[in-house]
Specification:
55% of the residues lie in helices and 13% in strands. By secondary structure, it is α+β, with helices and mostly antiparallel strands. It has one domain: Arc Repressor Mutant, subunit A (Orthogonal Bundle). It has a three-stranded antiparallel β-sheet with strand order 1-3-2. Helix 1 packs across helix 3 and helix 1 crosses helix 4. The longest helix has 25 residues. It starts with 11 loop residues before the first helix and ends in a 7-residue tail after the last helix.
Length: 121
């Protein structure tokens, strides 16, 4: 039986950044969006539980852009204002698949601790 890959995060910041990056990539998988729309999509998709502040969102977008996972271009928004629109690259799609796999492992691991299987009597 193949052994599952262990999920390793160096520290809490890496875990949080990785989670935010994954949410941004998932949001952009649906099509190009500007920062405010990305933030709103994450908030709406989480049932208003997750709020991504500007101070976290834009550094994450810049980091993802620097890694070649997203690209940006200036366009006119729905309000006729100039806005920077981000879109996923092929490398970003690949990273999203990898991050989703890591996330599913993390959820399964935490669930195993929070709700351990009952021992059979």
């Amino acid at each position: 039986m193949p052994r599952a890959t262990t999920v390793h995060y160096q520290n809490r910041v890496e875990l949080l950044q990785g989670t935010l990056d994954m949410l941004i990539l998932r949001t952009l998988e649906r099509g190009p969006q500007h920062g405010y729309r990305i933030s709103r999509a994450i908030q709406a998709g989480s049932g208003d539980i997750l709020t991504v502040e500007t101070g976290s969102l834009y550094p994450a977008l810049h980091r993802l852009e620097k890694q070649g996972l997203i690209v940006a271009e200036w366009k006119r928004t729905e309000n006729k204002q100039r806005g920077k629109y981000y879109r996923l690259t092929p490398a970003g799609r690949k990273r999203l698949v990898n991050e989703e796999s890591r996330w599913e492992q993390m959820v399964k691991a935490v669930s195993g601790v929070m709700k351990p299987a009952r021992a059979e009597s």
